[in-house]
Amino acid sequence: MSVHEELRARILRRFEGSEPQHELADWRMLGLEAERMKRIAAHFPANPVPAAVLVPLVDRPEGLGILLTQRASQLSKHAAQISFPGGRLEESDPDVASAALREAQEEIGLDPARVRVFGYLPDHLVISGYRVTPVLALVSPPFSVEPNPSEVESVFEVPAGFIFDPRNRKARLRRVGDEDVLLYDIPWQGHNIWGATAGMLMTLVRMVEEAKP
Protein backbone atom coordinates (compact mmCIF):
# COMPACT_ATOMS: atom_id res chain seq x y z
CA MET A 1 0.00 0.00 0.00
CA SER A 2 1.39 3.41 -0.98
CA VAL A 3 1.67 6.33 1.43
CA HIS A 4 -1.32 8.00 -0.27
CA GLU A 5 -3.43 4.85 -0.08
CA GLU A 6 -2.53 4.41 3.58
CA LEU A 7 -3.61 7.96 4.44
CA ARG A 8 -6.92 7.46 2.64
CA ALA A 9 -7.50 4.21 4.52
CA ARG A 10 -6.68 5.82 7.89
CA ILE A 11 -9.09 8.71 7.31
CA LEU A 12 -11.92 6.39 6.28
CA ARG A 13 -11.21 3.97 9.12
CA ARG A 14 -11.34 6.81 11.65
CA PHE A 15 -14.48 8.54 10.40
CA GLU A 16 -16.53 6.17 8.24
CA GLY A 17 -20.04 5.98 9.70
CA SER A 18 -19.44 8.63 12.37
CA GLU A 19 -22.35 10.85 13.41
CA PRO A 20 -22.51 14.62 14.04
CA GLN A 21 -21.28 15.59 17.52
CA HIS A 22 -23.42 18.50 18.69
CA GLU A 23 -22.97 18.11 22.46
CA LEU A 24 -21.30 21.05 24.20
CA ALA A 25 -18.61 18.80 25.68
CA ASP A 26 -17.52 17.78 22.15
CA TRP A 27 -17.19 21.29 20.67
CA ARG A 28 -13.81 22.39 19.31
CA MET A 29 -12.30 25.83 18.84
CA LEU A 30 -9.51 26.76 16.44
CA GLY A 31 -8.18 23.21 16.46
CA LEU A 32 -7.04 23.55 20.09
CA GLU A 33 -6.64 20.80 22.67
CA ALA A 34 -9.52 20.25 25.12
CA GLU A 35 -7.89 21.86 28.17
CA ARG A 36 -6.96 25.04 26.31
CA MET A 37 -10.46 25.24 24.82
CA LYS A 38 -12.03 25.31 28.28
CA ARG A 39 -9.94 28.34 29.26
CA ILE A 40 -10.90 30.46 26.26
CA ALA A 41 -14.53 29.34 25.88
CA ALA A 42 -15.79 32.46 27.65
CA HIS A 43 -14.58 34.60 24.75
CA PHE A 44 -16.82 32.81 22.23
CA PRO A 45 -20.56 33.45 21.66
CA ALA A 46 -22.86 31.84 24.25
CA ASN A 47 -25.58 30.91 21.70
CA PRO A 48 -23.87 30.25 18.36
CA VAL A 49 -25.83 29.88 15.12
CA PRO A 50 -25.85 26.30 13.72
CA ALA A 51 -23.98 26.00 10.43
CA ALA A 52 -22.34 23.31 8.33
CA VAL A 53 -19.40 23.12 5.92
CA LEU A 54 -18.48 20.44 3.44
CA VAL A 55 -14.94 19.09 3.75
CA PRO A 56 -14.56 17.72 0.18
CA LEU A 57 -11.83 15.08 -0.11
CA VAL A 58 -11.21 14.59 -3.83
CA ASP A 59 -10.66 10.86 -4.38
CA ARG A 60 -7.84 10.84 -6.95
CA PRO A 61 -5.65 7.79 -7.79
CA GLU A 62 -2.52 9.78 -6.87
CA GLY A 63 -3.94 10.66 -3.45
CA LEU A 64 -6.69 12.60 -1.72
CA GLY A 65 -7.00 16.31 -2.39
CA ILE A 66 -8.84 18.80 -0.17
CA LEU A 67 -11.06 21.29 -1.98
CA LEU A 68 -11.03 24.83 -0.56
CA THR A 69 -12.45 28.20 -1.57
CA GLN A 70 -11.31 31.78 -1.34
CA ARG A 71 -14.32 33.81 -0.35
CA ALA A 72 -15.36 36.94 -2.23
CA SER A 73 -13.71 40.15 -1.05
CA GLN A 74 -17.00 42.11 -0.80
CA LEU A 75 -18.58 39.84 1.84
CA SER A 76 -19.42 41.40 5.21
CA LYS A 77 -18.02 38.39 7.12
CA HIS A 78 -14.89 36.34 6.40
CA ALA A 79 -14.17 38.34 3.25
CA ALA A 80 -11.33 36.93 1.08
CA GLN A 81 -10.60 34.20 3.65
CA ILE A 82 -9.87 30.60 2.80
CA SER A 83 -12.77 28.37 3.77
CA PHE A 84 -14.75 25.23 3.06
CA PRO A 85 -18.04 25.69 1.19
CA GLY A 86 -20.86 26.05 3.69
CA GLY A 87 -23.12 28.30 5.68
CA ARG A 88 -25.90 28.46 8.24
CA LEU A 89 -28.61 25.82 8.42
CA GLU A 90 -31.93 26.71 6.82
CA GLU A 91 -35.37 25.48 7.95
CA SER A 92 -35.64 23.52 4.70
CA ASP A 93 -32.47 21.52 5.45
CA PRO A 94 -33.36 18.07 6.87
CA ASP A 95 -29.90 17.66 8.43
CA VAL A 96 -26.38 19.10 8.50
CA ALA A 97 -25.16 16.94 5.61
CA SER A 98 -27.98 18.26 3.39
CA ALA A 99 -27.09 21.82 4.39
CA ALA A 100 -23.42 21.32 3.53
CA LEU A 101 -24.25 19.74 0.16
CA ARG A 102 -26.72 22.51 -0.66
CA GLU A 103 -24.22 25.23 0.20
CA ALA A 104 -21.48 23.55 -1.84
CA GLN A 105 -23.76 23.41 -4.86
CA GLU A 106 -24.82 27.05 -4.40
CA GLU A 107 -21.31 28.39 -3.77
CA ILE A 108 -19.14 26.38 -6.17
CA GLY A 109 -21.56 24.40 -8.34
CA LEU A 110 -20.46 21.03 -6.94
CA ASP A 111 -22.89 18.35 -8.08
CA PRO A 112 -24.15 16.35 -5.05
CA ALA A 113 -24.23 13.25 -7.26
CA ARG A 114 -20.41 13.32 -7.27
CA VAL A 115 -20.23 13.49 -3.45
CA ARG A 116 -20.46 10.73 -0.82
CA VAL A 117 -20.74 11.87 2.79
CA PHE A 118 -18.95 9.38 5.05
CA GLY A 119 -18.53 11.08 8.43
CA TYR A 120 -18.21 14.18 10.58
CA LEU A 121 -15.74 16.14 12.66
CA PRO A 122 -16.88 17.49 16.04
CA ASP A 123 -18.68 20.83 15.90
CA HIS A 124 -16.36 23.86 15.83
CA LEU A 125 -17.12 27.18 17.47
CA VAL A 126 -16.24 30.20 15.33
CA ILE A 127 -15.61 33.49 17.06
CA SER A 128 -17.91 35.31 14.60
CA GLY A 129 -20.88 33.51 16.17
CA TYR A 130 -21.37 30.13 14.49
CA ARG A 131 -21.28 26.49 15.61
CA VAL A 132 -20.07 24.70 12.50
CA THR A 133 -20.43 20.99 11.76
CA PRO A 134 -17.69 19.86 9.32
CA VAL A 135 -19.18 17.20 7.01
CA LEU A 136 -16.55 14.83 5.58
CA ALA A 137 -17.16 13.63 2.03
CA LEU A 138 -15.41 11.90 -0.85
CA VAL A 139 -15.72 13.65 -4.21
CA SER A 140 -15.43 11.42 -7.29
CA PRO A 141 -13.63 12.79 -10.36
CA PRO A 142 -14.36 13.91 -12.92
CA PHE A 143 -16.32 16.84 -11.56
CA SER A 144 -16.61 20.51 -12.33
CA VAL A 145 -16.92 23.63 -10.21
CA GLU A 146 -18.34 27.02 -11.07
CA PRO A 147 -17.83 29.54 -8.26
CA ASN A 148 -20.71 31.87 -7.48
CA PRO A 149 -18.92 35.25 -7.77
CA SER A 150 -21.15 36.84 -5.13
CA GLU A 151 -19.75 34.38 -2.57
CA VAL A 152 -16.58 32.74 -3.85
CA GLU A 153 -13.64 34.22 -5.73
CA SER A 154 -11.82 30.97 -6.54
CA VAL A 155 -11.59 27.24 -5.79
CA PHE A 156 -8.35 25.31 -5.34
CA GLU A 157 -7.15 21.92 -4.19
CA VAL A 158 -4.46 21.01 -1.65
CA PRO A 159 -3.02 17.47 -1.38
CA ALA A 160 -4.12 15.88 1.89
CA GLY A 161 -0.58 14.64 2.41
CA PHE A 162 0.60 18.25 2.43
CA ILE A 163 -1.82 19.10 5.24
CA PHE A 164 -0.75 16.07 7.29
CA ASP A 165 2.98 16.92 7.00
CA PRO A 166 3.94 19.01 10.09
CA ARG A 167 6.73 20.69 8.11
CA ASN A 168 4.08 22.59 6.13
CA ARG A 169 2.51 24.33 9.14
CA LYS A 170 3.62 27.71 10.41
CA ALA A 171 3.02 28.37 14.11
CA ARG A 172 1.95 31.83 15.31
CA LEU A 173 0.64 33.35 18.51
CA ARG A 174 -2.82 34.87 18.52
CA ARG A 175 -4.39 36.78 21.38
CA VAL A 176 -7.78 35.34 22.40
CA GLY A 177 -9.27 37.24 25.32
CA ASP A 178 -6.51 37.43 27.91
CA GLU A 179 -4.50 34.47 26.68
CA ASP A 180 -1.89 33.94 23.97
CA VAL A 181 -2.84 30.89 21.91
CA LEU A 182 -0.48 29.01 19.59
CA LEU A 183 -2.25 28.40 16.28
CA TYR A 184 -1.13 27.15 12.89
CA ASP A 185 -1.24 28.67 9.43
CA ILE A 186 -0.86 26.43 6.38
CA PRO A 187 0.62 28.31 3.39
CA TRP A 188 -0.10 26.78 -0.02
CA GLN A 189 0.84 28.27 -3.39
CA GLY A 190 0.10 31.88 -2.51
CA HIS A 191 -2.85 31.06 -0.24
CA ASN A 192 -2.72 31.17 3.55
CA ILE A 193 -5.06 28.73 5.30
CA TRP A 194 -5.69 29.99 8.82
CA GLY A 195 -8.34 30.59 11.48
CA ALA A 196 -11.35 28.30 11.68
CA THR A 197 -10.50 26.45 8.45
CA ALA A 198 -6.97 25.64 9.62
CA GLY A 199 -8.46 24.65 12.98
CA MET A 200 -10.80 22.13 11.35
CA LEU A 201 -7.93 20.71 9.34
CA MET A 202 -5.81 20.41 12.48
CA THR A 203 -8.68 18.58 14.20
CA LEU A 204 -8.86 16.19 11.24
CA VAL A 205 -5.11 15.57 11.45
CA ARG A 206 -5.08 15.09 15.24
CA MET A 207 -8.03 12.72 15.26
CA VAL A 208 -6.51 10.54 12.53
CA GLU A 209 -3.08 10.53 14.18
CA GLU A 210 -4.51 9.74 17.63
CA ALA A 211 -6.44 6.73 16.31
CA LYS A 212 -4.85 3.33 16.60
CA PRO A 213 -3.36 1.98 13.35
Strand content: 35-45%
> CATH fold name, please?
Nucleoside Triphosphate Pyrophosphohydrolase
Give the terminus-to-terminus CA distance. 14 Å
The rough form would be described as globular
Helix content: 25-40%
The count of DSSP E runs of length 2 or more, i.e. the number of strands, is 12
Q: Biggest sheet, in brief?
A: 9 strands, mixed
CATH class: Alpha Beta
Q: In oligomeric terms, what are we looking at?
A: single chain
Q: Which H/E pattern describes the elements?
A: HEHEEEEHEEEEHEEEH
Q: How does CATH name the architecture? A: Alpha-Beta Complex
- What is the CA-atom radius of gyration, in angstroms? 16 Å
Structural class: alpha+beta
Number of domains: 1
Given as residue ranges, the uncertain stretches (5+ residues, pLDDT < 50) are none
Corresponding CATH superfamily: Nucleoside Triphosphate Pyrophosphohydrolase
Number of helices: 5
- Overall pLDDT score: 88
Layout of helices and strands:
Layout: H1 3-15, E1 28-29, H2 34-40, E2 49-60, E3 63-71, E4 82-83, E5 86-88, H3 96-108, E6 115-120, E7 124-126, E8 130-139, E9 152-159, H4 160-164, E10 170-176, E11 179-188, E12 191-193, H5 195-210
Parallel strand pairs: 1-7, 2-8
Antiparallel strand pairs: 2-3, 2-5, 3-4, 3-9, 6-8, 7-8, 10-11, 11-12
